[in-house]
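Researcher: Quick sanity check before group meeting.
Model: Go ahead. Protein one:
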Amino acid sequence: MVKHTIAVDWLQNNITAKFPSDFDCLTDINPKNSNFYFHRVRNGDEFYKHGFAVTYKDKPFAYIKTNSRNGKMTKENVFNMRIENNKFYELGWLDTTRQFFKENYFEHKSFTRLDIALDGGNYFEVMEREARGLLRMTGKAMITSRHTPSGKNNGYNIGMMKSKKSLAVYNKSKELNRSNKKYIFDYWKRCGLNTEKDVLRCELRLKNEESKKIVGIDFDKLDNFEHLASIMRTNLESSRNTSGKKSLGFFEFRIPDKNKNISRKESFCPIDWNSIGGSYLEKDSTRNSRAIFSAKLMMKKLYEIYLVTKNETYNAVCFDIAVNTDLLDYLQDKTPIWCEQFANKQGKNRNGLVSDDWTVSFKEVHGKGQTRMFKRDEVPIF
């Protein structure tokens, strides 16, 4: 019997259409020479106009959202696709996805969310040892316990669900008894995983911004055991950077001793990577830097100026920054919040400005490299 299985458990990504977007319709779609059928199910969401349930050979395959409501936020030929969970536990799911892209003239653009599930192993003991002071958690992510509907402890989370990277550790066998996902249990049996005892799951969840850091991540290898293990290992285990300094792992613990420097303490990882395999992938950690932070601040200020001045130029610049820094998902999530905040502040401020202390609004870089700061009473109008 095998000790572990590893598989994609959630895949939501942006795909691009190679044809002019003409999904603006009210009926089902059966593309010519395609084995896939698009059933219109609802009017999309706040970002997309339409939603379609896609079937393959009369079986559910994916859910796709089409036609951006704001062409400046998301281009008309960019759709959002979420593959049904059961497909990942079937042989050839990636081949079917490639067939879907080919027959309908789509191509993968970027990940919106990618979950990888490692089943098997003992991941619960670390919490017991940490509670007794025998281990110390590394990193800045918050660790919280998980509970069943009856209140019993069923594992723990590292990081928050809204974070760009998080980890969930829980008893998958007990969860299957409630969710009735028999296809996962059948997958375990086919792979030879020991199911006589409860199977524990270690599930890594990556958002778009974090997945972009991994240079070596390959959409066409998401059905490959070694590649999935490499993605997990790169995100969870400590590694050495180009200067030789060892970083703190996202899912690693340190054994307490008299050494005050935590990076020099002996490490303990709940996952036996030597038996699982997987290698380190190239990772661009500079993305999570001051540049990203500055881009987020600038986008918020530009969008606030757009709300005040109603000048579309500021909104366009805001969108360009999001594209260039791969922060489109961040911008889409934040704009409704910023609008609500602006509406609340506008009601409290007779001048209709964002806030009384709104002194820095925009930066203008001149040819000589000098930067000028504009105050609220001299906001530039392009």
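Researcher: Fine. The other one?
Model: Protein two, sequence then structure:
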Amino acid sequence: MITGILSAAPEGSLVTKAMLELEAEARSEGENSNISDSNLPQVHALNCLRAIFIHSKLGTVSERYVASGLELAASRLESQV
């Protein structure tokens, strides 16, 4: 859904806002109590970022976030959750 919304106006400020907010959510620490409920917004944020990076229409505008996206993905591999 997020890629559809962002691809409607890929050059707008909404892409920047979405990328910053999704990255902030993905960086937040999860709680072990949420695992059984499958309620991990961090995972959803990471999946949204992945979808933005691979969407053909958003490729040029998301290119500037690739380095921070790769760093984020690598840092989440060590997550306790």
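Researcher: One line on it for the slide.
Model: Residues 13-26+37-81 form one domain.
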